[in-house]
Write a structure and sequence with these properties.
Length: 428
C-alpha cells in the first residue's frame, strides 16, 4: 500500500466494505464476476453517500441564497474600501458575522465527498495493480479484475497502454471508446447542472460579480472534468458520472419546488402556484404555505413576481394570510343565488344609455306633450268637481301677504318678469 493510500486508510476500509456488501447482493442476481454486479455496487455507494450528504446540501442551498442576498452589500463595501484591502476584508467578515453566513458553506458537499472519492480511486487503483486493499481479498480482487462495463475493465484508464489493457482482458479500442463516452457525459452533465443554475435560479434583478464568477465556472468545471477524466479508472468514472447525474436531478427538484426569489424559476413556480391555489381555494401542501408565508412577510419588499402572485389571488377572490394559509377575501367573496349558482357580490356596472335618433327624440317629446296635456285635463276636471261643493264647506284660505301694494300680474309674452325700468325721456 502506497503512502497516499495509507493516509486514507481510515476511509478506504469502510468504502471497500460497503462495495463488497453491495457486490454480495448484486452478485446473486447478475453473477459475482459481471460488470453489472461491480458497477451497480459503485452506483449504490454513490447513492448512499449522497443520501447521507442531503443535510449538507440543504445547508449549501441556504448559504448560497444568503450569499446572493448579500451581493449588493458586498459590492458597496468593495466600492467604498477599494483602496484599503485590509479594511475591506474586515468589513466583509463583519458582514458575514452579522448575517450568520459562511462563504465556505457552499463547498461543504464537495469537501465532504472528497474523502470517499479518493478512497474509491485507491480501491480501484489497487484492483488495476493487483494489490489487495481494505476488505478486498484475493478472491474478490480476481473477481473485480474480470468485471467489464461495455467491454472496458473497471480498473482500466483512457491512457493505459495495450499491455496493461490486455492484462485485464480487454482491447485498447474498447477502453478508449467507453472512457471517452463517459467523460463526455460527465462533462455535459456538469455543464447542464451549472447552466440551469445560472439561467433559471439566479436573481435577475441584481447584477453582481458573483454572477460572472458562476458563469465562468460553468465553462471551467467541464473542462477540468475532461482533463482529469483521462486519468480516472472506469470505476471512478462510473462514480463521478453517477454523482453528477444525482446532483443534476437534485438541483432540478430544488429549482422546481423552492426557487431563488427574483429568478425565472420563481416566476414559473408562482404561476403554477396561482393556478393550483385558485382551483382548490387553499394551499394544500406545507411547502406551499411556507412560500406564501415568506411572501406575505416581505410586505412592500416583494419583487415583481411576488406582487403579481398576490394580485392574482386578489382577483380570484382570495387573500394570503400571515401564517401561509389562503382564505376567501371579504371584498371579493362570492354569494349564492336562489338556484345555487355563484355570482359576484360586487355591484353591477352602470350601463350607458343608448343614443337615440332624431326621430325617436321627436316622438318622445310628442308623447311627453300629450301626457302633459292629459295631466292638465285631469287636474281641470278635479278642480271642477271640487267647485260643485258648497262654499261654506271650503276651508278659508289664508290671506297672502302682498308686497308692493298690489298683486303682481303675470308677465305678458314678449315682456320681462319683474318691475319694468321706466323709459328715459327722449330728447327732442
Amino acid at each position: 500500500m502506497d503512502t497516499i493510500a495509507s493516509l486514507f486508510s481510515f476511509i478506504t476500509t469502510p468504502v471497500s466494505w460497503v462495495i463488497v456488501q453491495f457486490h454480495t447482493v448484486y452478485g446473486k442476481i447478475f453473477g459475482p464476476d459481471t460488470g453489472w454486479a461491480w458497477g451497480l455496487s459503485i452506483v449504490s455507494l454513490v447513492i448512499l453517500i449522497r443520501i447521507c450528504l442531503i443535510p449538507l446540501f440543504v445547508k449549501q442551498i441556504k448559504s448560497t441564497r444568503a450569499m446572493q442576498t448579500l451581493q449588493p452589500e458586498m459590492k458597496k463595501i468593495q466600492e467604498r474600501y477599494k483602496n484599503d484591502k485590509q479594511r475591506q476584508s474586515e468589513e466583509m467578515m463583519k458582514l458575514y458575522k452579522e448575517t450568520g453566513t459562511n462563504p465556505l458553506s457552499s463547498c461543504l458537499p464537495i469537501l465532504a465527498q472528497s474523502p470517499f472519492f479518493f478512497a474509491l480511486y485507491h480501491v480501484l487503483n489497487g484492483i488495476a495493480t493487483g494489490d489487495t486493499i481494505g476488505v478486498i481479498n484475493e478472491s474478490l480482487l480476481a473477481s473485480a479484475r474480470k468485471a467489464h462495463i461495455f467491454g472496458a475493465p473497471l480498473a482500466a484508464k483512457f491512457k493505459d497502454g495495450s499491455a496493461t489493457v490486455q492484462a485485464l482482458g480487454a482491447t485498447v479500442t474498447d477502453v478508449r471508446v467507453v472512457t471517452a463516452v463517459m467523460i463526455v457525459m460527465m462533462s455535459a452533465s456538469q455543464f447542464y447542472t451549472q447552466r440551469q443554475l445560472m439561467t433559471k435560479n439566479v436573481d435577475t434583478t441584481v447584477k453582481t460579480p458573483f454572477m460572472q464568477q458562476q458563469k465562468m465556472l460553468m465553462y471551467v468545471f467541464p473542462v477540468m472534468f475532461a482533463v482529469f477524466g483521462i486519468n480516472f479508472p472506469v470505476g471512478v468514472l462510473v462514480y463521478w458520472l453517477t454523482t453528477n447525474v444525482w446532483t443534476m436531478g437534485q438541483q432540478m427538484y430544488v429549482i422546481h419546488n423552492n426557487p431563488t426569489p427574483g429568478s425565472k424559476a420563481q416566476a414559473a413556480y408562482l404561476e403554477r402556484l396561482t393556478k393550483h391555489v385558485t382551483n382548490h381555494g387553499k394551499a394544500r401542501k406545507r411547502s406551499e404555505r411556507t412560500i406564501i408565508k415568506a411572501i406575505v412577510a416581505k410586505g412592500r419588499d416583494r419583487n415583481e413576481f411576488e406582487r403579481k402572485f398576490i394580485n392574482g389571488l386578489n382577483k380570484a377572490g382570495l387573500a394570503a394570510q400571515a401564517d401561509g394559509s389562503v382564505i376567501q377575501s371579504e371584498s371579493q367573496a362570492a354569494v349564492q343565488t336562489e338556484d345555487g349558482s355563484p355570482t359576484s357580490a360586487a355591484a353591477p356596472k352602470r350601463q350607458q344609455p343608448k343614443r337615440q335618433s332624431k326621430s325617436q327624440r321627436q316622438s318622445g317629446a310628442a308623447s311627453a306633450g300629450s301626457k302633459a296635456a292629459g295631466d292638465d285635463q285631469s287636474s281641470e276636471s278635479i278642480s271642477l268637481s271640487k267647485s260643485d261643493e258648497p262654499e261654506d264647506a271650503k276651508p278659508a284660505a289664508p290671506a297672502k301677504k302682498q308686497s308692493g301694494g298690489g298683486t303682481r300680474s303675470k308677465a305678458q309674452s314678449g315682456q320681462r318678469k319683474g318691475p319694468q325700468r321706466p323709459k328715459s325721456p327722449s330728447k327732442k
